[in-house]
Specification:
Distance between the termini of chain B: 7 Å
Shape of chain B: globular
Distance between the termini of chain A: 31 Å
Order of helices and strands of chain A: HHHHHHHHHHH
Largest sheet of chain B: none
Structural class of chain B: mainly alpha
Number of strands of chain A: 0
Shape of chain A: elongated
Number of strands of chain B: 0
Helix content of chain B: over 70%
Number of helices of chain B: 13
Largest interface: A-B, 50 and 53 residues
Strand content of chain B: under 5%
Largest sheet of chain A: none
Radius of gyration of chain B: 24 Å
Radius of gyration of chain A: 24 Å
Oligomer: heterodimer
Order of helices and strands of chain B: HHHHHHHHHHHHH
Strand content of chain A: under 5%
């Protein structure tokens, strides 16, 4: 078997004192990232913890108002509270990121496992499909797909799944090729385990680290992609609160109400930064090459 | 080398066939009747039938795809529905502006990203390293369009130093004619969009260069070079950077794709008359022939650059031989 064994006895045969493996902890920056994400997640789940204002409440008399006590981040062009719009907008961003990355992981990991494990025509077919999708600059393909499917949350999610799955398929394909040659896979096959069981119980658990790292970093990319599509006017549609759309609208009022573009951009950046810091931290934890640095 | 190049270019054929299939499928994926989606509900009857025939939508799908490929092979990307002009001509007139923006931004990111990464690796753990890495982390987390908006707010709206919209004369033409005023005007228009587009790539390249150089610095041959008493500059450039180049070159190839994709957003923000803006306008007007053509041409461009990147490996690492 490949799994390392730990010496459990001294030369005299007496049991060795239990040596606790040193607990690896997330770096400071990764903890900052987790904190940022915790705030965004809290805003999405319990918006009332941040604001009691209604994100749809129009107050035309106080349109484009700068930050005040009543509206801590100011108001938009029809007087809606910007803090409430951003807090409720976090729901859309997190939903799109979670579902699109989840979908891409399921699709990419499944096809990557099949390509790596079965080889031959299955591998050739799947990996050529990956090549075809990778021929397009990512945001351009997402843009074209959403333009075709029609604006809206579900179109954005489908487009992002179709854009993101290739990176998981590629990484999982390579990792599966290496793992399937290991002796524990051979042993499982020798005791009669079927392909499905080998793939799910033996191969997948051994290649999970790069998938977790990619997925965490991919969530940040998904938040940017969603807000980019909304910024270009083909993502999430009003009146649903969306960070990208608020920012796009804010660019029309840069001179009179710069708070609109500034705060909505900050919300996007803080979330992406959170995912990136956490993703880097997980990578440092799981990949010894990065830990050394 | 030539055989390898020929094989790589040959491998592009199935990839581009697949890309053509995706571009073709865009029209089929439109929910409902594509002809109605393109022309609107108010058009019906013979006019709709004529339009369907014009796009070939009245034929079986495999035949449609066959005809699409046949037209592509002849260099015919169709005609714009709204601009009533050949798509190839529209792309030809906007591609130079996109290439100018993408290449200048790539040069900016390479020219600044690699030295910054190298410097951070040399001063590992120091103030410069920490500062550079914090800025790089912010750079990879900042959406391109927000950076663009902030730069416009600062340099165009508040300070009024640089234009926030449009393109000056073509940089290459201005340089070729030695027109100093033209070069200045071109550069003034280029600075903000090129920096906006470069910033993400610059941050990514800085982080990657630092990581790759630090990894190489752990190698025995670096220790040997230092033990021989070689100057630190020689160790960094001849040993560390040269050996760290492979992952850097890989990422530069991908960055060209980022630049082409990012150009869609950057050109929209700055009103840059390139292919990105053409794509966004085509989407707004549901001009699918333009969208299909632009997507396909950008995919071809990106694929060819990736082949060039593969060939560049051999220059960076003589151990790589093309069989």
């Amino acid at each position: 078997m490949d799994s390392p064994t730990r010496a459990s006895a001294t030369s005299k045969g007496a049991p060795a004192p239990a040596v606790r493996p040193r607990r690896r902890r997330l770096t400071l920056s990764a903890r900052v990232g987790s904190l940022l994400l915790a705030v965004v997640a809290l805003a999405a789940v319990f918006p009332i913890a941040f604001t009691r204002a209604n994100p749809e409440q129009v107050d035309i008399m106080s349109r484009l108002a700068p930050p005040t006590r009543a509206h801590p981040l100011g108001t938009d062009n029809i007087g809606r509270d910007l803090l409430a719009r951003l807090v409720y907008g976090s729901r859309v961003s997190l939903l799109v990121a979670l579902v699109s990355v989840g979908g891409a992981v399921v699709l990419g990991v499944t096809l990557g496992l099949l390509a790596g494990y079965y080889g031959r025509w299955t591998e050739a077919g799947i990996m050529r499909l990956v090549d075809v999708f990778l021929a397009f600059p990512a945001i351009l393909l997402a843009l074209a797909l959403v333009a075709t499917l029609g604006a809206g949350v579900s179109s954005v999610i489908i487009a992002l799944i179709l854009v993101f799955w290739t990176q998981y398929a590629r990484v999982v394909h390579g990792a599966t090729l290496a793992v399937k040659e290991r002796s524990f896979v051979e042993a499982a096959r020798a005791i009669g385990a079927g392909d499905g069981r080998i793939l799910l119980r033996h191969v997948l658990p051994n290649i999970i680290s790069p998938i977790v790292i990619l997925a965490t970093l991919g969530m940040g990319t998904a938040v940017v992609a969603e807000s980019t599509l909304s910024f270009l006017g083909i993502g999430v549609q009003p009146p649903t609160p969306s960070w990208g759309w608020t920012l796009a609208f804010g660019t029309r009022y840069l001179r009179d109400a710069p708070h609109l573009a500034t705060f909505s951009g900050l919300a996007i950046m803080a979330t992406v930064l959170g995912f990136n810091l956490l993703g880097d931290g997980i990578r440092d934890l799981l990949d010894p090459r990065f830990r050394a640095q | 080398m030539l055989r390898y190049l020929a094989r790589r270019l040959l491998l592009l054929v199935p990839v581009m066939l697949g890309a053509a299939l995706i571009a073709f499928a865009l029209l089929l994926l439109i929910p409902g009747d594509p002809a109605v989606a393109l022309l609107g509900q108010e058009v019906s009857g013979p006019e709709l039938a004529r339009f369907r025939h014009l796009l070939g939508l009245d034929r079986p799908v495999p035949v449609q795809f066959g005809l699409y490929l046949w037209r592509l092979a002849q260099g015919d990307l169709g005609s714009s529905i709204t601009l009533h002009a050949p798509v190839l001509g529209l792309i030809g007139s906007t591609l130079p502006a996109t290439l100018e923006l993408a290449i200048v931004s790539l040069l900016l990111s390479i020219g600044a990203g690699i030295p910054l990464g190298l410097l951070a690796a040399r001063r590992r753990g120091g103030l410069l390293d920490t500062g550079t890495m914090v800025i790089a982390q912010l750079g990879v987390s900042m959406p391109v369009f927000w950076l663009g908006v902030l730069l416009i707010l600062l340099f165009a709206v508040q300070l009024d130093w640089l234009p926030s919209f449009g393109r000056g004369p073509a940089l290459v033409a201005a340089v070729a004619s030695g027109d100093a005023a033209g070069i200045l005007d071109s550069l003034r228009h280029l600075i903000l969009p090129a920096f906006t587009l470069a910033f993400f790539n610059l941050a990514l390249l800085t982080r990657l260069t630092r990581w790759a150089v630090l990894e190489v610095l752990e190698e025995d041959y670096v220790r040997t070079a230092r033990a021989k008493g070689q100057a630190e500059r020689v160790v960094m450039y001849r040993h560390a950077l040269r050996n760290a180049l492979l992952p850097i070159i890989t990422i530069i190839g991908l960055q060209f794709g980022n630049a082409l994709g990012g150009a869609v957003v950057t050109e929209t923000i700055y009103g840059w008359p390139g292919m990105g803006r053409l794509v966004v306008q085509a989407i707004g007007q549901r001009d699918f022939p333009v969208l299909q053509g632009a997507v396909l041409v950008l995919a071809l461009l990106f694929s060819v650059v990736n082949v060039a990147v593969d060939l560049a490996y051999g220059l960076a690492d003589p151990r790589i031989r093309y069989e």
